[in-house]
């Protein structure tokens, strides 16, 4: 077909493609992971800012360098051992406009070992913007110092303060995360300390927090009511000058574990949407339970929410989110295929490999870096008949000590060309993919057995 006719009929072809869904049934979902290995050593605060100046990230002084607040219509949640820089780069090949978050970074780590923490947490590329850095902690002074380091480290969109993590370590042992929702005045003070460094600050929290023994899971009586949630938002917004909140639409139940907290407390979208009604001057992003682009579009079009946030579903089925730019940000359709994405990612991996070879890394650290660069593509073919073959080949080649780019490119060779050339509109919907709960193990668990 002549190129002029292709251009003429491209919109029609895109519509037809959007109506086609692959119908093959797959094996189970599994998760990617991260294991970082970086240079040893630490640096003083002064030494760190001198390092920033040498790298061209800052002149050594703290002054406005942050980007304007990003368009937060679609956000990728901060996930430990998942949203590292390699995964973020990979997902930006699927959706350039999405706002991506770092893993939660302990503020104390940044302050005590800024050089090492930079390599582990803050190292990034400009292709990842808009990028939000999430900090965890509870000490005002430490959070302020950490904010200063973040600001000197790149043009991040903003800082996000973690007030929603329900893990026993974070919430119980260190009195951070979701535990902070019981201390709104202290949260406001922490946010002020970070804002004093000239950084835009948002807060990620739950719709409430309860201890298991007092929880509504026991007798149905509600301890943390909507009024308590509204009070928390009001105090943090006024005293902490916070105008952006990300709300996980579940309560945190302290004492039942992190994984159970993503499943057992019921979703309460109505409570989050009510916040958006009652606080029109504040921007609210809803997180939790969103499984496809359509559900995100519906929430954005029928409520006063400013954005949505998706987490594990993107890790498990990334290709089903490759049309976010067209569907949510309403950009002009631009066809991409998994083959195109993989080729671009392989080029990125080769550049990263050169950097690693210049570093004095142990063999174990090199193996870890290989695993973390392979992990983002592990679920790229979820739902397709060739998914098991793809995963098996990746894991098998990880045994042999070859580089990540070789593993990915060699694993591509055995895949059907028809699947590689499917567009972002062609995928198996999540509800058609069988779930095998007992088989849900992460890539880290799998690769640790074979490397």
Strand order of the largest sheet: 1-2-3-4-5-7-9-10
Query: Which structural class matches the secondary elements?
Result: alpha/beta
CATH superfamily of the largest domain: Aldolase class I
**Terminal residue distance:** 49 Å
Number of domains: 2
User: How many helix segments?
Assistant: 21
CATH class descriptor of the largest domain: Alpha Beta
For the secondary structure, the number of strands is 10
Share of helical residues: 40-55%
Round the mean pLDDT to the nearest integer and report it. Answer: 83
Net shape: globular
What name is given to the CATH topology of the largest domain?
A: TIM Barrel
What percentage of amino acids are in beta strands? 5-15%
What's the CATH architecture name of the largest domain?
Alpha-Beta Barrel
Radius of gyration: 22 Å
Signal peptide: 1-24
Cofactor: FMN
Pfam families: Dus
Organism: Guillardia theta (Cryptophyte)
């Amino acid at each position: 077909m002549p190129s002029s006719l292709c251009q003429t009929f491209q919109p029609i072809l895109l519509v037809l493609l959007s109506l086609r869904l692959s119908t093959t049934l797959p094996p189970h979902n599994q998760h990617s992971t991260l294991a970082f290995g970086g240079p040893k050593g630490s640096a003083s605060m002064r030494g760190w800012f001198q390092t920033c100046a040498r790298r061209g990230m800052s002149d050594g002084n703290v002054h406005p360098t942050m980007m304007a607040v990003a368009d937060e219509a679609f956000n990728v949640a901060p996930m430990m051992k998942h949203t590292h820089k390699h995964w973020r780069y990979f997902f930006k090949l699927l959706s350039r406009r999405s706002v991506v978050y770092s893993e939660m970074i302990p503020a104390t780590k940044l302050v005590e070992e800024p050089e090492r923490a930079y390599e582990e947490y803050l190292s990034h590329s400009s292709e990842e913007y808009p990028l939000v850095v999430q900090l965890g902690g509870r000490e005002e002074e430490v959070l302020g110092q950490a904010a200063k380091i973040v600001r000197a480290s790149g043009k991040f969109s903003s800082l996000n303060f973690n007030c929603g993590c329900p893990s026993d370590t974070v919430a119980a042992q260190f009195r951070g995360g979701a535990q902070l929702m019981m201390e709104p005045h202290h949260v406001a003070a922490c946010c002020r300390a970070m804002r004093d460094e000239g950084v835009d600050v948002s807060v990620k929290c739950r719709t409430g927090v309860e201890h298991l023994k007092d929880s509504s899971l026991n007798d149905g009586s509600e301890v943390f009511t909507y009024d308590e949630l509204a009070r928390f938002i009001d105090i943090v917004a006024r005293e902490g000058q916070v105008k952006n909140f990300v709300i996980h639409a579940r309560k945190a139940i302290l004492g039942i574990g992190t994984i159970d907290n993503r499943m057992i407390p019921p979703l309460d979208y109505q409570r989050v949407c009510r916040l958006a009604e009652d606080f029109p001057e504040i921007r609210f992003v809803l997180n939790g339970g969103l499984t496809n682009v359509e559900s995100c579009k519906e929430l954005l079009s029928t409520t006063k929410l400013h954005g949505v946030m998706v987490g594990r579903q993107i890790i498990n089925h990334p290709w089903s989110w490759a049309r976010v730019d067209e569907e949510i940000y309403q950009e002009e359709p631009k066809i991409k295929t998994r083959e195109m994405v993989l080729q671009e990612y392989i080029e990125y991996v080769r550049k990263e490999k050169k950097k690693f070879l210049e570093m004095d890394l142990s063999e174990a650290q090199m193996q870890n870096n290989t695993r973390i660069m392979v992990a983002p593509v592990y679920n790229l073919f979820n739902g397709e008949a060739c998914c098991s073959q793809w995963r098996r080949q990746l894991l098998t080649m990880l045994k042999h000590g070859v580089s990540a780019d070789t593993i990915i490119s060699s694993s591509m060779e055995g895949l059907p060309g028809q699947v590689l050339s499917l567009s972002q509109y062609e995928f198996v919907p999540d509800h058609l993919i069988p779930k095998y709960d007992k088989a849900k193990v992460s890539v880290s668990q799998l690769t640790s057995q074979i490397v």
